[in-house]
Amino acid sequence: MRRRLKSRIPPLLLLFYRSILLSLLPGLITAAIVTLDSIEIYNTHELLGLTPEVYFQCKGENRTNLPDVKKKHELYSFKGEESWQPLTELEEKKCKRCGIYEKDSFIKPDDVFDEWEFCASDFTSPDGKYIRFKEKEFNATFLCPDCVPLEGASNHSADSQTKGKGMHWALVLLICVVVSIFVVLGAVTAYKYWQKRKKQQEQARFLKLFEDGDDIEDELGIGPLNHVI
């Protein structure tokens, strides 16, 4: 019984701890969606005048084909609602290695328009736009309105950082105290329950022994009813 109780307590505490984190720290993990606002290519790498297949891709992610981009020196604008949007998601303090490529029709690797470290901090414009330009290759505008507050949050003053750290440790301490209280309450409740079950088992064992003794006396004919007969 004691082993069974011990195996049940940790999952309950883990579930409670996770619920506290999710309720008190909803913004702990943030990601911002990035869409393509416009693009113009200045060059194609296909031989024989074939129609290029341009796509965007970040390392470790699936590529996003840009089916409308077919001609050089033509500006393509998008609404962000296209079926192939968004391009990717960016976190506050983690960049991605991304690029714009052109699929090659032959065996050789795909051609590269440009590759760069794509970060939320690139979106410094108030309207959430970031322009990526490479001479003789392309000019693209990316849109990420949610990246602007992410970048602003990472540029606090020293005083605000100190205050934030103090609040963070206070929150951690509060969570530890609450979890400790529940651990103690859970342990006390489990111990009382175990004592109650043990007492019930001892009573049941005693009654069973008493009944077994009566059965033995009846079989041997030494019970009180046998004397009367």
From TrEMBL:
Domain DUF7953, residue spans: 32-145
Alphabetic keyword roster: Membrane, Transmembrane, Transmembrane helix
Organism lineage: Eukaryota, Viridiplantae, Streptophyta, Embryophyta, Tracheophyta
TM region(s), chain numbering: 169-191
Protein name (database record): Uncharacterized protein LOC107816641
InterPro entries, alphabetized: DUF7953
Organism: Nicotiana tabacum (Common tobacco)
Source species, domain of life: Eukaryota
